[in-house]
Amino acid sequence: MQGSARMSLFSKLFGGGSKQADPGPDPVEYEGFVIHPTPVKQSGGYRIGARIEKEIGGEVKDYELIRADVVSDADEAAQMSVRKAEQMIREQGEKLFD
């Protein structure tokens, strides 16, 4: 096996190569906050999760939201992640970052 063919085989076997990572769902702006849905793939579906950001006093603050909820569909998980983050923002606002 030639060097480049061997390298190609190893790249395919071990995940190397030029595949670009999936950037995930688009961020959503809500009441001055930015919500980045980050559902986590796991056995049985996707765990609800999001990163909530807001610039306060020139500094970007962030909060990681992780829920025990698991849903089977990735798009549904992203939508639920946004809804849960919006609920946290309504309930706590900037206190999320304390």
CATH class category: Alpha Beta
First and last CA, distance: 59 Å
Mean pLDDT: 85
Helical residue percent band: 25-40%
If helices are DSSP runs of H or I spanning 4 or more residues, what is the number of helices? 2
Name of the CATH architecture: 2-Layer Sandwich
CATH topology: Double Stranded RNA Binding Domain
Please give the number of β-strands: 5
The low-confidence runs, each spanning 5 or more residues with pLDDT under 50, are 1-12
Evaluate the radius of gyration: 19 Å
Shape: elongated
- N-to-C SSE series? HEEEEEH
List keywords for this structure.
98 residues; alpha+beta; Double Stranded RNA Binding Domain; five-stranded antiparallel beta sheet; 37% strand; elongated; disordered N terminus
In short:
The chain has about 100 residues and is an alpha+beta fold.
Q: Care to describe what's here?
A:
32% of the residues lie in helices and 37% in strands. It has helices at residues 3-14, 74-92; strands at residues 28-30, 33-37, 40-42, 45-56, 59-71. The chain is of the alpha+beta class and 98 residues long. The chain has 2 helices and 5 strands. Strands 1, 2, 3, 4 and 5 form a 5-stranded antiparallel sheet that branches. The protein has a single domain, classed as Double Stranded RNA Binding Domain.
